[in-house]
Amino acid sequence: xxxxxxxxxxxxxxxxxxxxxxxxxxxxxxxxxLDDIKERGTIRVGVLGGEPPWGFTDAKGQPVGVDIxxxxxxxxxxxxxxxxxxxxxxxRIPTLLTGKVDLLVASMGMFPDRAKVVQFTRPYVAxxxxxxxxxxKDISDYKDLAGMRVAVNRxxxxxxxxxxxxxxxxxxxxxxxxxSAVQAVLSGQADAVxxxxxxxxxxxxxxxxxxxxxKIVVNNQWTGIATRKGDKEFNEYLNDFLDRIEESxxxxxxxxxxxxxxxxxxxxxxxxxxxxxxx
Amino acid sequence: MTYEFDFSVVWDNIGLLLDxxxxxxxxxxxxxxxxxxxxxxxxxxxxxxxxxxxxxxxxYIEVIRNTPFLLQLxxxxxxxxxxxxxxxxxxxxxxxxxxxxxAYAAExxxxxxxxxxxxxxxxxxxxxxxxxxxxxxxxxTPAMRAIYPALTSQFILLLLTSSIASAISASELTAVAQRLxxxxxxxxxxxxxxxxxxxxxxxxxxxxFNLLDRILFSYPIR
Amino acid sequence: MVRIFGLDDFILLLVGLxxxxxxxxxxxVGGAVGGLAIALCRVSPKRLLRLxxxxxxxxxxxxxxxMQLFLVYFGIGILGINVNPxxxxxxxxxxxxxxxxxxxxxxxxxxxxxxxxxxxxxxxxSYRHRMRYIVLPQALRISLxxxxxxxxxxxxxxxxxSIVGFTELMRSGQYITNATxxxxxxxxxxxxxxxxxxxxLSFWSTxxxxxxxxxxx
Lengths: 279, 222, 217
What we know:
The complex is a heterotrimer of chains A (279), B (222) and C (217).
Chain A: H1 6-24, H2 33-40, E1 42-48, E2 56-57, E3 63-64, H3 66-78, E4 81-87, H4 92-97, E5 103-109, H5 112-115, E6 119-134, E7 149-153, H6 157-165, E8 171-175, H7 178-186, E9 192-196, H8 197-206, E10 212-227, H9 232-247, H10 250-259
Parallel strand pairs in A: 1-4, 1-5, 7-8, 7-9
Antiparallel strand pairs in A: 2-3, 5-10, 6-9, 6-10
Chain B: H1 8-12, H2 14-46, H3 51-65, H4 69-79, H5 89-115, H6 118-126, H7 131-161, H8 173-184, H9 187-217
Chain C: H1 7-42, H2 47-61, H3 65-78, H4 85-111, H5 114-122, H6 127-157, H7 169-180, H8 183-216
């Protein structure tokens, strides 16, 4: 330490002081988001901007997709205007937790570790996550990924599953979105890519010559709306809203429009992932 | 709004972050050396009598200096494979950093050489120095002394720029931080510590460069 | 759902370019105000002003822009200030620009020959008047090439706003890539747009620098 200059020591001291002070900022109280929304007249929604068919951008620059259609119904139900905030997979939870948006309708897979930091609603859509590779690759299980380079969208479910299950000599390449990960495998920079089933279908259209096929089914994923924890009123309202659009058939219309099939039967509960809250 | 700070995830994963920092150090140190070599070659081409060599050098410098590094990275990693050139993420990051730094360093060196007037040669000659001595004491050292501050701050910038290499899945500090962020959701805490690590690394480099400056370029010339 | 890169996409990129220009412009103007304040603190005879400015510059010049963005962007929210992302991004880039312009201008103020300041002192001009009428106008002239050079860095740096999810030129390019799967065409066009924006500025900056160098010889 004494070998470092005076300024470095001061800088370090500053850093430490800042860490300590930051730790002492008291927890800020959670307010009723629903009241805020009605008062403001707008609902601020975090949606994905580049992950078709969930949330992406059309040629006019407008957000479109499953999540956006659900949000439009929600805004209509509340009688407010939606205000879209594009997020990416890694930035969506921080964006919610730091209060930049009221909720996330951002293709959020419902998993226990995420349920610890955000409040999920009941699911509104289902997805199948895959590991995809070219036909000549002999892969049927995670262990076959030994020595291979697997491209994933940083921090998404497939990343987590592959990281946990693949042999230690598997090289996991993490990118900021699906397109970069797919690009890595198409350009031969990776041997396999983690992709959901619908983007894979899109790839069939856009790159008809590709020879990628599904190799490993990572999981069937339920997708829910996410809010900050401790807001019972908002959570109850959202669950009720989703029940109503399921019953009215509007949710099915959305599913048919984007995914080409009716939505599946939704579970009434998932282990370790509460749809409701007491607080 | 609720936000409670929790730095424990950082301390639990400090080993991973330090590994990332080590990778960042390697990446930047190697790219600094490579950038210097590229810059010298480019400077030769830039001041060459052969016109096409000059054009290539100018084209290279201008394209690099006027497009974002992120875009250059994408090009090296995703674009070059279509020409049959395939590099691992870390290699692609190194090549992109070296070529980026090389373009800037070439321009800085050109300024340094230009600052040495013809009179210097003549003065050295008049003092009865041998050509090699003239080059060493009257040309090279003063030119290096003139460009050293700009060159080294460009090198520090290279260290900081390496954080962008996470976009092509290189395994340096920012990539480690982003990965931890994506599984612990403690963004602010993780980025805060990662930032502090960058600050420490850049101060170390700064001090190292200052020390070298004192050893190599102090008056009187030994 | 999949589309081919066409005119609409080109227009979408132009919209993204607008945001790129807007962030850079706001950060440059905000940074000019902040940078002048920092530069003046940095050359102030008062230690209490000089030191904080020095450390501020050291921190911003010693950490990656990407990290600064992350910290300011999410930090503002944590402090309980609710602003939309566009404001948060602007604040982050303004802080960055203030520190860098502050350091560039500090150098330029100190490059004004001390004789100038001494002569003004001998004419019993106050510190404020010395700065305002004698030193700063000359420093401004010296600083132009480096300042424009930094503007180019700033424009290129706005591409990192894409990583926190802000839709500027780079992010627009990523969106279109995700919908078309044609990265080379899309990023090629994006690159040309950045070049068209930055190159004239770089050229201007270099030409000014050469003129000044020639004049001072």
